Amino acid sequence: MALLQMDEWYDLARETNWTPSYVSEDELFPTPMSNTFDIPVETWETFDEPYKVSYRDYVKAQRDKDVGAYSVKAALGRSEFFKKASPHWKALLALHFSAVCWAEFHSASAFARMTRFSRSPGLRNMATFGTLDEIRHGQIQIYFAYEFLKHDAVFDWCHKSSKTENWIIISLRHALDDIAHTRDATSSGIMLNMGLELAFTNLQFVALSADAAKCGDHTFATMLQSIQSDEARHAQIGEPVVRIMVENGKKKEAQQLVDIAFWRIWKQFSALSGISMDYYTPLEHRESSLKDFVDEWVLGQFGRTVEALGLDLPWYWDILKDDVSSFHHANQIGIYVYRATQWWRPISGTSPAEREWLEEKYPGWNETFGKCWDVIADNIRNGDYEKTVPVAPPLVCNMCGLEVTGMAGDKWHAVDHHVDIDNRRYHFCSEPCKWIFELEPDRYKGHTSIIDRLFDGTIGPEPDDFYNYMGQSIPERGTDGYEYRWVDGYDSDDVDESQPLRAAG
Amino acid sequence: MADFPLAINVQGDYGYKVIVVDDAATIAEVISTSVEQIVSVLVAPFPEGTVLRARIHGADEPLANGLKVGDANFVQMEALEIYVEP
Questions:
Q1: pLDDT tens digits, B61-78
Q2: What pTM did the predictor assign?
Q3: Is this complex scored with an ipTM above 0.95?
Q4: How far apart are CA A56 and CA A10, in angstroms?
């Protein structure tokens, strides 16, 4: 018997629902998990995803993707690529794998909640594929990353990192807990799909894949492409959810969910993709900056999508435009100077030639963030290595968990936003981080940053207590990936402490 | 006498840092501690004769150098800008 064509049965299967007889509707779909936002279930049942796929076709496509990615890996497995890779690329790989592998499992959990608790049968169907996608993403990345373990113990952190209290992990986990683990299925559908996947995964998977190919890391490039092809499909779940909300008088609620998730995830990608693109990608293979990519894909493409869905651009759009040119530059300084708190080997990415590139892409960089790097390079050239690490810890944002930073150097501008509750001061790196907190203080106020934990006694007073708390033995504390050789290209004139070192060239 | 944590941002630095001072310390001593920890680490030494002042983040007026931390009505982790007096 001939099989029906997909379009002959798909809509019927997708819209199939049932009436529970053993339990009530409320028991089957409790509001905390299945929030309908007071929109009738019949309306949710009209959910119509733009990308339709059958399970048979899904499995075939995924099998083909896996065959492709694993074949490239097997073919190149014996290459000396990793051994010959620069400290730039090794730092990038370590940062990517240790931040992204386990984050995929967070997404799998959110999709599984949508699969179980969404009121739209079509969404439940698509979320099933999303769950499988994300499990695959976690598995393939951990599998690929662990190949490097024989070369470098840093890659043990690709899985382990999620279980530690390292400050960067706390930052990422807090964001993912907020949007992926602790929201109802409808909210997760908007926050995860719109705020994370549709808005930002292009940055880390498409842009980085292109850079990887240029660097000759074809295994990494193929793996990233394989993942992004899934993201591009299941990210579209969020759009019909938003459309139903907007068309049924819930624009304000949908807008708020997008605005919260977008900013929380922007902060994470700003650090992850921003540092990877503008500092860790080897200069000879670097073309576009974070700002270039954000201009095209986020401010442009995502912005147009949001407006086409009937939402407004997030209220902080102008703040975002400024943040794109500053936040990750400031945080890169912090990542480098507090390098012992990282598990990988951070690099400065500020050789004279790299500074030229940064100045070209971010006019004024040398007179602002470059001024801090002048002092750091000066200390290294003088052999004052201890001075390259501040004694004072950084202030950390009580929402995003990253450093509270402003503008450095000649255009110095201190930035801090705060809220006082119950005799505790909460600091924020930005107005949107503060805004998110103030929307639901009871939701967020119990969370403590790594700095709060230093002062509330959670972390002991001895220096090693801090590292032990973060799960970092001495060999697991980051050191300069170039062992300070990056200053070799600096002007060789005698160093005068009263005159900060300037980049040559 | 008790430890008192403050957030400080020295002019030129890229972000806020946290220092711990005695609540009997004066603002002048807070400035001195901040300079000790940040200048020549992330900020180039200021020219000789530079006068640094401290102000609560966002305030227009400097704090008096003789004011003690414990008398300043600060909350713990108060944010202070350490800036060059124009």
A1: 999 999 999 999 999 999
A2: 0.94
A3: yes
A4: 12
